[in-house]
Amino acid sequence: xxxxxxxxxxxxxxxxxxxxxxxxxxxxxxxxxxxxxxxxxxxxxxxxxxxxxxxxxxxxxxxxxxxxxxxxxxxxxxxxxxxxxxxxxxxxxxxxxxxxxxxxxxxxxxxxxxxxxxxxxxxxxxxxxxxxxxxxxxxxxxxxxxxxxxxxxxxxxxxxxxxxxxxxxxxxxxxxxxxxxxxxxxxxxxxxxxxxxxxxxxxxxxxxxxxxxxxxxxxxxxxxxxxxxxxxxxxxxxxxxxxxxxxxxxxxxxxxxxxxxxxxxxxxxxxxxxxxxxxxxxxxxxxxxxxxxxxxxxxxxxxxxxxxxxxxxxxxxxxxxxxxxxxxxxxxx
Length: 333
Fold this sequence. Notes:
Elements: H1 3-15, H2 18-25, H3 29-43, E1 48-51, E2 54-57, H4 59-88, E3 94-99, H5 107-118, E4 123-128, H6 131-139, E5 145-149, E6 161-176, E7 200-203, H7 206-218, E8 224-228, H8 232-240, E9 246-249, E10 260-263, E11 270-278, H9 286-296, H10 299-303, H11 310-313, E12 329-331
Parallel strand pairs: 3-4, 3-5, 7-8
Antiparallel strand pairs: 1-2, 5-11, 6-9, 6-10, 6-11, 6-12
């Protein structure tokens, strides 16, 4: 199969127009049409349906498109690695890492610094997003390593995914400094979540909101979420202004605003953090495996104890496997 023609087909489907794709790729319309025709001849199937507003994939074209992203990503990666071997003597000059936002506060910078010192010839590209959007990018071959959490809907059991459990991340309560519970008596101990039953909460996407709802249900109340904000910068600002309280992962502590007070909870919820790589086509690259090892060696991971009790384990979302510092396991459906 002609990879150039496959790339052109993918671009045509993305734009819904042969002329628009031809312009973007620098081909004439007739040249791009010949590439599509060569694919159709090779596969003995019609791939595009023409209509008044452009084109769309036929059922056969949709089946091909489902695989095209991964095929092209693998091809690009192979091309880069061959070039890297000639230039650097290593099989990967670049790895692409995606991570949840809270990992950027300390865990990821610490691992990146150590990895860069050990492998200066390998360039690391980083993208930040939430787990439900990072996982499809990993499966499509756009990422080599993804730092994910098991926030609902959880990590699915997928054949060909290899997950290394890094740590169990305790969720803490962040309050405005002026809050009545922000500066307790030294002997007060950890905060009972039920004391916050009448508070307004700041939350973002459905996964973390469901963790909050489950923790509050165990404490005997339903949280009132008045402010939905997708970024940690905004969430902290709302809390600092006295407009609500929030659950914050311990991983985020180094980046929390100084005008917030943080209290541990008496029966805290936890989430697990995993480094996930794909093994569908081959073993992870040596550089990707080395980056996962660098994550596991960070002071952040070593300083984070496993979930403390069986009761706390019950607060966790759907798990792939348990145990602090587990070796990676292949995830199968």
